[in-house]
């Protein structure tokens, strides 16, 4: 299936030539909350809300755009309005606002648990739209369009690259110097913590001492990534999660910390706006997998649910395990 389309006269020269509209496919991974979230300064010293996402590359969204001669962009399943909006914005960005068709959304990401399912759908839809007209969109443009479609967006467009990302602006505050250290993660949820609508919440008003702590944590996470130090990364993540207790409390945070300490984890991490939490394990430890099993078992015995194990930047690691 293909159509020939012509860009608007006001579009850039890059988009000024006729394009053949075809079936386009886009993909995006999930995430498991954040390693760090707070406020961080830009090059001019102005503060911005930002975060460092913990990628969950084993699951994701695949969106396929099927062009047709209808009058709008629809989705299957229906009512994925953010993904449809994102595709429309992408076609407008590329000088082809008249394109219509259907977005088929296939996802392995649980919806409503804080895994970034909405952002993954949006990013995959933007990539599918670009692929449908054989065009490229750089990551900064995709971020800008994603924020326009859903007000705030996670840094999923960067896959497993570590960045400090201003989620409400769609811009990178800092590209961190390398890949994440090799990690195993035991993730889980509590039935006593429920997802929240972060856009409806008043943003956290951090105290001056916390803002100074974020400045220190920024330097430490930079060092942890540069030196591939999983233990230091875990300290950063634990401190960030602890600060968040003042703003969106995890009711069983103390139990989370105890499981980490008893199981040999190098730190804890959370979704700062949802029920997800996890224990980080240094994948280079000689008994790393034994620690993972022990932590997952302790989480199950403590009443946590939706237990998963996955790895980040570990060669030959097993795929995501949900059999706990």
From TrEMBL:
Entry protein name: Kinase
Keywords: Kinase, Transferase
Highest rank taxon of the organism: Bacteria
Gene3D superfamilies xref list: 3.30.230.10
PANTHER family assigned to the protein according to its UniProt record, in alphabetical order: BETA-RIBOFURANOSYLPHENOL 5'-PHOSPHATE SYNTHASE, HOMOSERINE/4-DIPHOSPHOCYTIDYL-2-C-METHYL-D-ERYTHRITOL KINASE
SUPFAM superfamilies attached to this UniProt entry: Ribosomal protein S5 domain 2-like
Gene Ontology MF terms in the entry: ATP binding; kinase activity
Native organism: Agrobacterium pusense
InterPro entries, per the entry: GHMP_kinase_N_dom, PduX, Ribosomal_Su5_D2-typ_SF, Ribsml_uS5_D2-typ_fold_subgr
Residue ranges occupied by any GHMP kinase N-terminal domain in the UniProt entry: 84-151
């Amino acid at each position: 299936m293909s159509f020939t389309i012509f860009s608007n006269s006001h579009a850039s020269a890059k988009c000024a030539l006729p394009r053949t509209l075809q079936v386009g496919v886009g993909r995006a991974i999930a995430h498991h909350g954040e390693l760090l979230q707070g406020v961080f300064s830009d090059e001019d010293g102005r503060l911005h809300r930002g975060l460092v996402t913990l990628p969950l590359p084993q699951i994701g969204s695949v969106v396929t755009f099927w062009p047709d001669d209808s009058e709008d962009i629809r989705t299957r399943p229906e009512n994925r309005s953010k993904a449809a909006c994102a595709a429309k914005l992408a076609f407008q960005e590329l000088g082809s606002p008249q394109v219509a068709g259907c977005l088929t959304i296939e996802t392995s990401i649980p919806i409503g648990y804080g895994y970034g399912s909405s952002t993954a759908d949006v990013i995959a839809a933007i990539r599918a739209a670009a692929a449908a007209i054989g065009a490229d969109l750089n990551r900064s443009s995709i971020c800008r369009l994603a924020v326009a479609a859903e007000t705030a967006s996670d840094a999923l467009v960067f896959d497993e690259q570590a960045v400090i990302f201003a989620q409400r602006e769609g811009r990178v505050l800092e590209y961190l110097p390398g890949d994440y250290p090799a990690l195993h993660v035991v993730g889980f949820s509590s039935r006593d913590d429920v997802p929240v609508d972060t856009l409806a919440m008043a943003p956290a008003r951090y105290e001056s001492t916390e803002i100074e702590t974020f400045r220190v944590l920024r330097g430490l996470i930079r060092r942890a990534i540069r030196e591939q130090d999983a233990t230091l990364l875990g300290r950063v993540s634990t401190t960030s999660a602890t600060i968040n207790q003042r703003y969106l409390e995890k009711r069983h945070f103390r139990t989370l910390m105890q499981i980490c300490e008893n199981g040999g984890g190098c730190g804890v991490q959370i979704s700062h706006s949802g029920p997800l939490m996890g224990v980080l394990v240094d994948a280079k430890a000689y008994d790393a997998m034994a620690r993972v099993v022990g932590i997952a078992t302790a989480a199950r015995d403590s009443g946590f649910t939706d237990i998963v194990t996955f790895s980040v930047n570990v060669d030959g690691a097993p795929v995501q395990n949900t059999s706990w």
